[in-house]
Amino acid sequence: MKYIITGSVGNISKPLAQQLVAAGHEVVVISSNPERTSEIEALGAKAAIGSVLDVPFLTTTFKGADAVYLMIPPTWTPTDWPAHLKKVADNYIEALSQSQVKKVVQLSSIGAHLGHGAGPIDGLAYLEKQLKTLAIDVLSLRPSYFYTNLYTMADLINHAGIMGSNFGSDNEKFVLVHPKDIADAAFEQLSKLDFKGHSHEYVSSDVRTYSEIAQAIGKAINKPDLPWVAFTDEQALQGMQQAGLAETIAQGYLQMGIGIREGKVQEDYFSSQSQPNGKVKLEDFAKEFVANF
Fold first, then answer.
1. For residue 292, what pLDDT is reported?
2. d(C-alpha 70, C-alpha 203), whole Å
3. According to the model, what pLDDT value does residue 223 have?
4. What pLDDT shows up at residue 293?
5. What is the tens place of the pLDDT at every residue in 238-254?
6. Domain 152-158+162-172+206-291, what fold?
7. Which residues contact 139 (CB under 8 A, 6 or more apart)?
8. How far is CA 270 from each of CA 80, 163, 167, 170, rounded to the nearest angstrom?
């Protein structure tokens, strides 16, 4: 089988490519950075160097593939983040329609059921919706909040002795996932390719309260009294701006935080009675946090 992997050698795409190569498949990894070529080839995959903003490149790369793993690569440079996400999504749709690909596993997100009002998740929801216009089989993976996002709180922990954001109160439940568990879920679906029509699947590793998250991280880094503090929207926005995030990205994350705080982002996960299906639990990740703290 031939698979196209978008996302270069990121936290999900790299282990996914490794698993597909180990299973004996032909794997092509798309990256915008030519310096990634040797790293991709070291995985046993082929490198396709080009931009997701280049429809002819995408179309040519997609042709002949049995399936594509589709994700919108992260970026910190756009002046209009929503417009950028929409542009990449539209490019994917055009390339897929021209390349005759029949199977797609898309990286979407928890909260994609909303369609709007969830910051960057809205772009993934838009791609989910547009994929439904194609006569192909699509499985949209909807992972929850990445454990690895907690790394952004390292400076906050060091300088203020707290964790926090513009969402989260002590006993509220928060759904978490490890990128490796997402890669495993994508590998399982790409290996089987038995999904039909358009469907979605939630991917999560653990469900814990915010106080438990702070306690687990605090225990691992020898700060047992580490608390989770809910910030005002103004405080959260100011913190992101001071950290150097572009205004369009800071506003997007602020909106996502509001959606989490109001319960909208996670509502469909809980109402559908989804359960953690990943292997990496909070305490496992806390050990990783120490190594990168």
1. 84
2. 16
3. 96
4. 84
5. 999 999 999 999 999 99
6. UDP-galactose 4-epimerase; domain 1 (3.90.25)
7. 104, 105, 106, 189, 195, 199, 200, 201
8. 32, 24, 17, 18
Closest CA to 33 of 55, 15, 9, 17: 9
Q: Encoding tokens for residue 15?
A: 């282990």
Q: State the chain's mean pLDDT as an integer.
A: 97
Whole-angstrom distance, CA of residue 130 vs CA of residue 281: 33
Residue-level length of the chain: 293
Contacts of 41 (CB under 8 A, 6+ apart): 47
Q: Which of 50-54, 67-71, 168-172, 185-189 has the lowest mean pLDDT?
A: 168-172
Query: Token match 């919706």: residue?
Result: 129
DSSP class per residue in the chain: -EEEE-STT-TTHHHHHHHHHHTT-EEEEEES-GGGHHHHHHTT-EEEE--TT-HHHHHHHHTT-SEEEE-----S--SSHHHHHHHHHHHHHHHHHHHT--EEEEE--TTTTT-SSSTTHHHHHHHHHHHTTSSSEEEEEEE-EEGGGGGGGHHHHHHHS-EEESS--TT-EEEEE-HHHHHHHHHHHHHH----SEEEEEE-SEEEEHHHHHHHHHHHTT-TTPPEEEPPHHHHHHHHHHTT--HHHHHHHHHHHHHHHTTHHHHHHHHTT-----S--HHHHHHHHHHT-
Tokens 């990783």 map to which residue? 288
- Give the domain ranges of the chain: 2-145+177-203, 152-158+162-172+206-291
Cα(28)–Cα(48) distance, rounded to whole angstroms? Answer: 7
Fold category of 2-145+177-203 in CATH: Rossmann fold (3.40.50)
- Once rounded to an integer, what is the mean pLDDT over residues 173-189? 98
The identity of residue 149, as a single letter, is N
Report the distance separating Cα 144 and Cα 177, nearest Å: 6
**Amino acid, single-letter form, for residue 87:** K
